[in-house]
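Re: beginner question about structure tokens

> Can someone show what the tokenized structure looks like for a real chain? I only ever see the sequence side.

Sure, here's an example I had lying around. Input first:
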Amino acid sequence: MFDSDRSTADVTLCIFPHLKEFIAIDAREDRPGGPAVLRLSISNILGEDFYSQIERDFSKMIRRQDIGFLELMGIPQQVEAVIRANSIKRIIAELGVNMPESGHDRGNAADGTVGVLFFAGPLLALEGPLLREAMQELFDNKLAPHTREQLIDQLLELMEQERKSIADTSRQDIANLISGKGGPYVTLWESGGN
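And the corresponding structure tokens:
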């Protein structure tokens, strides 16, 4: 399928774990209109056909005749891999990249690469100048200066939304803890048992 080497990726996905939007940087030279920064909604990706494919893949996974107990315990990781692969396929289709189904006639699509940047932790903490430097390093020879600036503006906006969403989630967790909606109990402090 696609390699996951960000530095030379034809398509780079900027994922914000708490948001329903993400950015796709389509840096393919042969893209109609040239390389572009696209802001996409998860609702465009997670349609009925996506869920149907996940269900078919999951059904095949658990209905194998030769499945053993150990393999059965590994199903959560397999489900994660199926969801990830199907998500990438849907995003690539949304971007208009043609990917033949069979492995022997993939042609140019197999030569493409997809990179994924998860905006969490240290990457989410990048401020303007450092973000600008990182985007310059990643996309200097693939995006025109005005397109790179558009990318940085959109990243900064979504990064701020992601930070706010994380803060709101933390406040909600504390409110649930205080109100008792967070579960039957919580351990605030535990003695070492001396």
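Each token stands for a local structural state, so reading them left to right follows the chain. The chain has one domain: 6-173.
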